[in-house]
Amino acid sequence: MSEHDPYGTGYGNAYGYANPYAPPGEPVPPPPIGPEGPGVFPYPAYGYGQGYGYGNGWPGAPAGPRNGFGVAALVLGIATAVGFVLWPLAIVTGVLAVVLGVLGRRRAGRGAATNGGQALAGFICGLGGLLLALLLAVVFVARH
Q: How confident is the model at residue 130 (pLDDT cuts 50, 70, 90)?
């Protein structure tokens, strides 16, 4: 065991790993320095292109799918279908789910989104919950 061989393997550097290119018993040379100098990255750091609009952030890159309407329609549609007993809130969320579902389907039809089925499911859940909430509201108002 030595300073350069803390694990007693008979070869290696301070970390216990062997340098396959160094002759036995020789210290491991430092890594090479690039033309930019030590500590300088020859490429842009992570996150460089952010802020260039839609897409992945790099200029000239194609924009990614715009799936927000379909996702929002599905979330609101499920919330409406499950929570229709809170009929005043369910009427609002149901209308929003139906509108966002239609907008999401149109966007998917143009090819700007990839989740047309998700938008359709949000539309259906929102419409079903909306009809149940409206029926519950009519029964509630008729009884009082």
A: very high
Which residues touch 115 (CB under 8 Å, ≥6 apart)? 65, 67, 70, 71, 104, 108
Predicted TM-score (pTM) above 0.85: no
Q: What are phi and psi for residue 2, nearest 5 degrees?
A: -145, -175
The CA distance from 10 to 2, in Å, is 9
10, HSE (Cβ side, Cα atoms, 13 Å):
0
- d(CA 69, CA 97) in angstroms, rounded, equals 9
DSSP letter for each residue of 58-96: STTPPP----HHHHHHHHHHHHHHH-TTSHHHHHHHHHH
Residue 124 CB partners (closer than 8 Å, separation 6+): 77, 101
Instruction: State pLDDT tens for residues 89-112.
Output: 999 999 999 999 999 999 999 999
